[in-house]
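Weekly modeling sync, notes
Attendees: S.R. (lead), two postdocs, one rotation student

Agenda item 3: backlog of single-chain predictions. S.R. asked that every request posted to the team notebook include the full sequence so nobody has to chase files. The rotation student volunteered to paste the first one in as an example of the format we agreed on. Action items at the bottom.

Example entry:
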Amino acid sequence: MQGGGERIQSFAFVISICVCAVLCAVFLGDFSSGSFAGGIELESRINPNDAPISSLVRLPGIGAAKAAAIVAYRDGYRPEQGEGGAFSDCDDLQKVKGIGPKTAENICAWLKFE
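Predicted structure, as returned to the notebook:
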């Protein structure tokens, strides 16, 4: 038979395991719900045609070098008559060196094109 102190320790252990299980379930639910995509959260979508480098680096898979390449590409872009910005959809980002189909697909949900 267990003494009073051992019962309290056993009870505390069981309670702590239950609390850990609940916290794990909560955190895993946050990650799988889509509200936490790629480790970033943005207040709204960004437009790569006018977003600063500081906004672009927050996109998944886009570091400082790729963000600078996006800005350099759009700054050097010369639209033809009636065209808008350098990027009209996610596929246009593949024109930037270092951005392939997978990267463009991964960041598309975070972008808007106006």
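Discussion: group reviewed the output briefly. The chain has two domains: 1-36, 53-110.
Action items: rotation student to repeat for the remaining queue; S.R. to check formatting next week.
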